[in-house]
Amino acid sequence: MNYMQNVWKLYAVRFFYSLIPAYVIERLFWEQRGMTIQMVVYTEIIYAITIVFLEIPTGIIADKWGRKKMVVLNAFLGCCGIFILVFSTKFWHFAVVAFLAGIGGSACSGAENALLYDSLLKSGKEQSFEKHLGRLNMCEFLAIILAALSGSLMANRFGFEFNYWVSFVGMFISLCISLVLVEPDIQSEIDMPIPIKEYIKASVNFFGKNPSICIVLLSGMVIGSALNFIDEFWQLYISRLGVPVIYFGLFLAVLSFLRLPGNIIAYAIKNRFSYRVLLSAVVFVFTVGFLYLSVVKDYTSLGMIFLISIVSGIIEPIVTGYLHHRIDSSMRATIDSFQSLGLRAVLIVVGLGFGFFSSKFDIFGGYGFISFICGVFFVYFLASSKDIIQ
Predict the structure, then answer these.
(1) Contacts of 65 (CB under 8 A, 6+ apart)
(2) pTM of the prediction?
(3) Percentage with pLDDT > 70 across the chain
(4) How far apart are CA 58 and CA 259, in angstroms?
(5) Which pLDDT belongs to residue 372?
């Protein structure tokens, strides 16, 4: 079988899964239904806690019984979540959606990357993983751009709920395509299946023996959690600056477009600069950028959001590729799940601080707290990575 067809199917699954015009007005829609910033943060924490508890079990299930099943489950729960949102009017409705999203996210996180890598491995193209992961992310951003440009117009003409129904259609198509994915038959270095408890023990030992991987992944977790608060709250931030809703779709399209170059050229950049230089540079930009967003409350802040988006594009392909080139296929989804688990754990801690400072000083105080976290990590990264990351 030509397993490269699997790669193309994964592109399509990600594209339609991300084709969500509801996202462009999501926070305004939630606010319209009575959700405060702190309530939204609580749903983010529910989402993160769900992933923390399920990330490793779903990764083990993916390795033992198939990655395709987890990708299908994610698409199915995505359909359910969007359907529920249309009728949500109370906090617990949104909390249920966050819980379902957490189940789907934990199921898919390690499985999707593992399915991509092993499909490339069967095709003899595993060294191009960063390139194809970047293209996978590119499909997501192109879908977001298309949804954003149409989403503002549809919301303005037909109302907020119409965007959710269109989003449901895209999610359903993603579900249908995921059903025709093929599970690669991989010959592992580990011949026999190992007990579930041994997966966790082996994973912990793996990270204990590879401190460089731990630091690289931790940097991705800090950057990813910080970026999450741009993705989740940019609507409220630019509305505070007085940007009309009609321009929200254009703003999201630009935001997504600016992440494309980094994802596309990440595989080439890593061959020209060391991991230490790349990661420290991105963390520094995040530290300065979020501080600017906190202090300077005018339209120039939009440019800083764009700068953060530009430099963030290289992170996922570089960090995830650094990990996958160093692990065995028999535990690929499980160990990748530890990466997502760590991200959600960091997100919970940072989210609590972000929610507190946002409740006291609005969104600007929340972004000031993110700047502080990035600054502290920047100092730690420079000190701890000096001798072990090239």
Answers:
(1) none
(2) 0.72
(3) 93
(4) 29
(5) 95
Residues of the chain with pLDDT under 70: 1-2, 24, 27-28, 186-199, 328-330, 390
The CA–CA distances, whole Å, from 103 to 59, 89, 329, 374 equal 12, 22, 23, 28
Residue 375 is predicted with a pLDDT of 95
Report the pLDDT value the prediction gives residue 192, as an integer from 0 to 100.
42
Distance CA 359, CA 91 (A): 17
Spatial distance between the Cα atoms of 60 and 68, rounded to a whole number of angstroms: 13
Report yes or no: 266 and 134 within 8 Å, Cβ to Cβ: yes
- Predicted pLDDT of residue 73: 92
pLDDT of residue 195: 58
Q: What is the pLDDT of residue 373?
A: 94
Going from N- to C-terminal start, the domains of the chain cover 8-180+205-384
Architecture of domain 8-180+205-384: Up-down Bundle (1.20)
Rounded distance between C-alpha atoms, residue 253 and residue 273, angstroms: 29
CA–CA dist 24, 286 (Å, integer): 23
The pLDDT value given to residue 199: 65
Residue 390: the pLDDT is 65
CA gap 343, 223 in Å, rounded: 9
**Dihedral of alpha carbons 6, 7, 10, 11, sign:** negative
Quickly tell me which residue has 């699954």 as its tokens: 13
Three-point CA angle 10, 11, 14, nearest 5°: 85
